[in-house]
Amino acid sequence: MSILDRITGKKEPAKKTSKKKDNVLDMVKDDSGKAQENIVLKGDTGRAHRVLVNHHLSEKTNTLSSSGTYVFKVSPTANKISVKQAVESVYDVHVANVNILNIKGKMRRYGRSVGRTSDWKKAIVTLKAGEKITGLAEGV
C-alpha cells in the first residue's frame, strides 16, 4: 500500500488466511502411544495466565511429578489461593497443597561488570492422590 493509495482511499484486497481453531491440539499421543486428534483445551481460564508464568522443569521437578507434585514459576504478586485457583482452572485437577518460595537472584559477572539475575517466585503444587498433569514432566 503506497502513500498515494492512502490519500485516494484505495484499499488493498484482504489477504486470505487459514484460520485454525483456538485451543485445539492437532495431534497428541496418549499413554498407549496412539495419536488422538482434536483434543480441546479449556477455553476461558480467567486470570490464570497472569498468575502462572510457566512450569519449572528440572531433574528434581521431574522426579517430584511422579508423586503428584508440580513446580511453577508464578507472578511476584501471586498468593497460595490465586495459584490454587489458576492450576485448578487451567489443568482441571484438584489441588491439595500449595507452597510458595521467593527465589532471590544470583550475582553474575559479565567481564568487568557485575550484574544480578532477576528475583522470582516459585510455587510447589501438590495434587490430590491419583491425579496428574500430563505433558509437564516430559523432556528431561
Verbal overview:
The protein is an alpha+beta fold and about 140 residues long. The chain has 4 helices and 8 strands, in the order H-E-E-H-E-H-E-H-E-E-E-E. It has helices at about 5-10, 50, 60-65, 80-90, and strands spanning about 25-30, 35-40, 50-55, 70-75, 95-105, 105-110, 115, 120-125. Strand 6 and strand 7 (about 115) form a beta hairpin. It is extended, with a radius of gyration of 22 Å. The N and C termini lie far apart (about 50 Å).
Summed up, what is this model?
The chain is an alpha+beta fold and 140 residues long. It is 21% helix and 34% strand. It has 4 helices and 8 strands.
Key terms:
140 residues, alpha+beta, Alpha-Beta Plaits, 8 strands
Head-to-tail CA distance between termini: 48 Å
Q: What is the typical, i.e. mean, pLDDT?
A: 81
CATH superfamily: RRM (RNA recognition motif) domain
CATH class: Alpha Beta
- Extended strand count: 8
Radius of gyration: 22 Å
The unreliable regions are: 19-28
Largest sheet: 4 strands, antiparallel
Based on the coordinates given, report the CATH architecture: 2-Layer Sandwich
Structural class: alpha+beta
> How many domains, in number, for the residues?
1
Q: Which geometry do the CA atoms define?
A: extended
Content of β-strand: 25-35%
Strand order of the largest sheet: 3-4-8-5
* Tally of contiguous helical segments: 4
State the CATH topology: Alpha-Beta Plaits
Helix fraction by DSSP (H/I, runs of at least 4): 10-25%
One letter per element, helices H and strands E, the order comes to HEEHEHEHEEEE
Topology:
Elements: H1 3-8, E1 24-29, E2 35-40, H2 48-51, E3 52-55, H3 59-65, E4 69-74, H4 80-91, E5 95-103, E6 107-110, E7 113-116, E8 120-127
